[in-house]
Amino acid sequence: MSLLNALETEAQPQVIASGGLKRRRHVLDLDDFSRQEILEVLESAEGMSEVLHRDIKKVPALRGRVVVTLFYEASTRTRMSFEEAGKILSADVINMSASGSSAEKGESLLNTGLTIQAMGVDTIVIRHPHSGAPYLLAQHLDKVGIINAGDGIHAHPTQALLDLYTVKEKLGRLEGLKVVIVGDVLHSRVARSNIWGFAKMGAQVVLCGPSTLLPLDMLRPSGVPANDEPLASVQVETNLDQALEGADVVMALRLQAERQNGGFLPSMREYIRRWQVTEARLGRSSPDVMIMHPGPMNEGIEISSTLAHGGRSVIERQVTNGVAIRMALLYHLSAGVGA
After folding, report:
1. Do 46 and 111 fall within a single domain?
2. DSSP string across 54-97
3. N or C terminus of the chain: which is more exposed, having fewer CB within 10 Å?
4. ω into 266 cis (within 30 of 0)
5. What is the mean pLDDT of residues 3-21?
6. pTM for the full model?
7. Within this chain, do residues 17 and 82 fall inside the same structural domain, yes or no?
8. What residue numbers bound the domain in which 260 lies?
């Protein structure tokens, strides 16, 4: 049975491709994803994208399933795309935030999770300001699938998967590409997950920005040797012009002032002068270079406005593809429940 045919039924969700996704209950980061699992998600997203292009964007695949989005941080793209993804698949989606919940009365994250599980929920999508929060729930909740929608400065796996999908959709491949990630890597959970994803798929990853915002020692989890593959191939460059030489993909990152406590930059003017991604600087890159940004953007700081909205930009496409990727993950995790 093809994926699209399976989506049209209300039977127990099934994984069409053979591989490890059927056994996966949680999506916490890409460090424990195999290359094959990543490919399965990307292939499934192609089918989900076809559903998104229909006049009536609705299939009964997850009817009767309940998804809770539990967000302790503000979000537009991630939260809305998970909600849309669940509803297109006919799941019942319940949105929760710390504001207005028992968290304001001092209830712990674990007790909140146990309460949600006791209500018979199938999947919790969590965003939390503390790194490791989704892992805590995954460790203690045995009847609920957990999807990490961003935890502190640690990881954002669904963003990385949609970025991989967007690049493969546009350029036809991932292996052998040069991907330059520019900006505040230190505080970027998006960068960390993208490093794992692109490196595992055979791309050359180059990190660029002020040396104070390039924490190479923090990119590897505890216990992983410095020469471990695929992270051993990650390069660091503080000179943006040199980093952009021959680049196929350039991803600008937002300066995350809310996570900084000062002392990382001499001045904003200096950052703009040395590390803003502009049309003029792209002359060193591949003629077909694509421009990405995980959002939200600070136009005129990490990226010029003309470039952000120009023909090379796939930023809006990233948002669209986010729905397809999250549909694929919700479907696959539902297939793995109880496996």
Report:
1. yes
2. SSS----TTTT-EEEEEESS--SHHHHHHHHHHHHTT-EEEEEE
3. C
4. no
5. 61
6. 0.91
7. yes
8. 157-314
Clarify whether residues 198 and 296 are in a common domain: yes
Query: CATH number of the domain that 74 lies in?
Result: 3.40.50.1370
Sign of dihedral through CA atoms 321, 93, 71, 38?
negative
For residue 126, give the H/E element and its range.
strand 123-128
Residue found under tokens 């809305």:
80
Coil vs helix vs strand at 290:
strand
Q: What is the mean pLDDT of residues 127-136?
A: 96
* Residues 180, 204: Cα–Cα separation, whole Å: 8
Least confident of 116-120, 142-146, 233-237: 233-237
CA 193, 75, 111, 145 torsion: positive or negative?
A: negative
